[in-house]
Structure formats: C-alpha cells, structure tokens
Amino acid sequence: MKTYGFKTFQVNKNERGLLLRGGDFARVLGPGKHRIWALGETLHVQRFGQDAPAFTHPLADYLMAHEPKVLAQHFVRAELGESEVGLRYEDGLLAEVLPPGARRLYWKHLHEVRVEVLPLPADARIAPELAARLQQLAERRGPASLAGGVLLTQVPQFHTGLLWLDGQLQAALAPGVHGFWRFGRSLAVEVVDLRAQTAEVAGQDILTRDKVGLRLNLAAVWRYADVQAAFAQLPKPAEHVYRELQFALRAAVGQRTLDALLDDKAAIDSAVLQAVRAKLAGCGIALESVGVKDIILPGEMRSILAQVVEAEKAAQANVIRRREETAATRSLLNTAKVMEDNPVALRMKELETLERVAERIDKISVVGGLDQVLNGLVKLR
C-alpha cells in the first residue's frame, strides 16, 4: 500500500531493522523510533532478532557487493576460499565451523563476532588444542555446529588408530583424541586393539587318514606385530588368521591316523603352529600359541574305544592278580620251610592262628588244657 507523509516504525533494543522502499533496500535501522518520510512509496521494515547473529536474507549478496559502509557499520563478513575453513567466535567462544566457499554476514551489535580463517592442511589434521575446542562445541551446540566437516575420534590406551584418507592408509594414531578436516575428503579412522587376541576355531568336522570322523575345537593366541603392514596386505586380518588356522588344522588331522592323534595330541598343536606361522610371515601378525581344546569322537567310535579300554584294563588286572597270587604262594612256601626247621617259629605261628580264631569267637570253653586246644585246631605234618 502506498504511503504519503511520515510513518513511524519501532525497533526494539535487541533488534535491527531493514528498511525497504518499494521492496528495495534503503538502510539499516537501529533500536528506537524512526519517523520516515514517504512520498507515494511502499515502506516496510523487516526486524531481525540479535539472538540469531547470522543475517540470512536474499539481500546479503547485494550488501557484500555494493554496500561497504553498511557492512562496516552493522555486519561481520565471512568469505572463504575453496581451500579454507572458518571458525566463528561469539563473545570469545567458538560457536560455528564454516565450510570452504562459505559467504556469510553476521550482526555485530549484540554479540562480539569474530571469524578466523584457516587453510585446510594437506594431511587434514587438526591441532590437538583446536580438536578439544571442537569437541566442546559439538557437546554444547550439537554436531550441526561442525557443518559435517570435522571427524573427531578417540583412540583408547593399548590401541592404535589407522587413518584412511581418500582410500589410502596414511598413518597410525597414538592413544588420545584426534581431529581431522573432512571437507572434500573421504576420511575414516579404524581403531585396532594391539593386545593379544584369541581366535576360536570351533566345531571342525574332519576325517583322519584312516577315515574316522572327528570334531575338533582349537584356540590360538595372536597379536599385531606391525599393524600398518597387516592392514596394507589384508583387508580383514582377524578373518585371515581364522582361515589359516582352519586350513592348517584340517591338514594336520587329515595326515594322521586316529591312534596317532590319540597317542600324541601335542603333535597337532605343533604342526598347526608351524604351518600358520609360515603363512603369516611378513604379514605383520605374530602367532604366539596354538592348542587343541577338544577332540570329540562319534558315538559308535566312543563305544568301540570304551570296549578296547575295558579289555585292556581287564587284562592288566588279571596279570596283576596272577602276579600277586604267585607272590603269595612263594611267601607261604618260604614260611613253611622256616617253620619246618624251627620249632619256635612253628609255635609262634600256632599262637598267631589261635589269636585270629579267638577274635571271631565271643566265648571259648577249654577242656584238657591249652595244649589240647592247640593240638585240636592246628595240625602240621
């Protein structure tokens, strides 16, 4: 609607106004009442709250190109190149990360706004101090404040981080917090445990050389000797270790008979350890130990072996029984020879026999004296 004469506009203290004459920019209005003369023009004031410092308006590009005085008085200008990143501070605190190529205007009145321009380094690394501030910013204002251009990662103790930049392995990261600029780059950090790890090869059904089916469970302990070399050669080192253990176990069992395996179980451990170490040589992986945990026989074979063991033990028990009987007979013969030539020894044996008999009888009636009892109980020829 066209206006003639003065028109009054009110701009609050925490606001700024954009005066438009006929829809075109005229000037910026500060806080207070403004009486503006209009002569057949449409006057309009757009108000901007200073709690949102960014000036997002279609006139922003025009102001940056043609209104240097307005910019100097009311705005902070941020204009970045393709290889630059910006850090916007409000009242001394980091508030926002600006991506390369950004062109922004910020109101300068309510908050002290400052924009720091940094070149993007070739290795994409962020200084540790700045990485800590960016971490605080993400916690305070959310991940959106990082403009999706910051990768922050923490590497725990006893671990290392593998930095992949544009699909290439760049470096190993020590424990701690690390930050990288990801604008225009493909970045990823893989955290790897450097401590000893266990590989379980369970439930392997394997035929021995004499065609007996066994199920085996094997465990191995391994660690990274050179983590960069391991990941440079192997996409998934842990899976590679598992496969090599599996193949070596099958080869070691398939070359031996069941009796050989049961007689020397440690031979499997030694064969698998040597075979896998040879396969992993130069891969940056150290195999420390290998051990077969279980050898499980099929039900029929367990019954047969149980019968074999039972027969062996029965034969051993029979041999021992015969040996003891022979020894007992020899002892009795020696005792008889001693008593034949020694009446005193014979008398002692008679008394010993009488004592054993008396232990089993509650009451004894003696008729004719003790000699009559001895002569009646024991007769030696």
TrEMBL record:
<dbReference type="Pfam" id="PF01145">
    <property type="entry name" value="Band_7"/>
</dbReference>
<protein>
    <recommendedName>
        <fullName>Band 7 domain-containing protein</fullName>
    </recommendedName>
</protein>
<comment type="similarity">
    <text>Belongs to the band 7/mec-2 family.</text>
</comment>
<dbReference type="InterPro" id="IPR001972">
    <property type="entry name" value="Stomatin_HflK_fam"/>
</dbReference>
<dbReference type="InterPro" id="IPR036013">
    <property type="entry name" value="Band_7/SPFH_dom_sf"/>
</dbReference>
<dbReference type="InterPro" id="IPR043202">
    <property type="entry name" value="Band-7_stomatin-like"/>
</dbReference>
<dbReference type="GO" id="GO:0005886">
    <property type="term" value="C:plasma membrane"/>
</dbReference>
<dbReference type="InterPro" id="IPR001107">
    <property type="entry name" value="Band_7"/>
</dbReference>
<feature type="domain" description="Band 7">
    <location>
        <begin position="132"/>
        <end position="309"/>
    </location>
</feature>
